[in-house]
Amino acid sequence: MIYVNQVYLNNSLPIFPHQLYKLDPDAEPVCLRDITAKANFDIARSTCVSYGGFLISIKTVEKLELFKSITSGQDRWVGLDDIDVEGQFVWHGDGSNLTAVQEKAVFSSGEPNNLGEEDCVQFRAHVQKLNDLPCHHKFGFVCERSLPGSTC
Ligand SMILES: [Ca+2]
Ligand SMILES: [Ca+2]
After folding, report:
1. Residue 56 and residue 8: Cα distance in Å, rounded?
2. Closest CA relative to residue 131, chosen from 73, 84, 80
3. Å from CA of 60 to ligand 2 middle
4. 141 CA to middle of ligand 1, Å?
5. Rounded distance, CA 61 to CA 72, Å?
6. Where does the UniProt annotation place the signal sequence (predicted)?
7. From CA 54, how far away is CA 108, in angstroms rounded?
8. What is the pLDDT of residues 85-129, one digit of tens each?
9. Could you say which ligand is closest to the alpha carbon of residue 82?
10. Which of 39, 61, 106, 119 sits most deeply, having the most CB atoms within 10 A of its CB?
């Protein structure tokens, strides 16, 4: 964690107080914000967009560990869903599809399973990995933002 950059509106609500994180000293830094208020997937997604970002992408074990350190391993929505085409998961950050390697790295064993129609993806505290489940559930969420410069 290198920078903490907070910007406040007149009503004192933070508009985008993301923090800058690095997975390791040589890695590209990422800007993340953990939001503990619970919301359904659609609200979580649109909230991150309103902050100029997107629901977090977690494609690697390293990113998963960073996510867990920020959220204390609690339930959160992440930026991945198969709402448009069943079984075809898309990352919100770059629009790419979930790969088999990513799935093996970050999903819980046996997930995603679309059990009873599950199109949105959460970090599941119980197993400390990702799981698909119905989008109407309410969780906190983590927003990610691409770096406009050297600060968030
Ligand atoms: Ca599904
Ligand atoms: Ca599931």
Report:
1. 22
2. 80
3. 19
4. 19
5. 16
6. none
7. 23
8. 999 999 999 999 999 999 999 999 999 999 999 999 999 999 999
9. 1
10. 106
121 Cα to the center of ligand 2, angstroms: 8
Ligand 2 centroid, distance to 145 Cα (angstroms)? 27
In the chain, where the domains are located: 19-145
Report percent pLDDT > 90 for the chain: 71
Cα–Cα distance for residue pair 55/72, rounded to 1 Å = 17
Q: What is the pTM of this model?
A: 0.85
pLDDT digits (tens, 9 = 90+) for 39-96: 999 999 999 998 888 999 999 999 999 999 999 999 999 999 999 999 999 999 999 9
Q: Say if domain 19-145 classifies as CATH 3.10.100.10.
A: yes
What spacing in Å lies between the alpha carbon of 139 and ligand 1's midpoint?
A: 18
CA 86, chain centre distance (Å)? 20
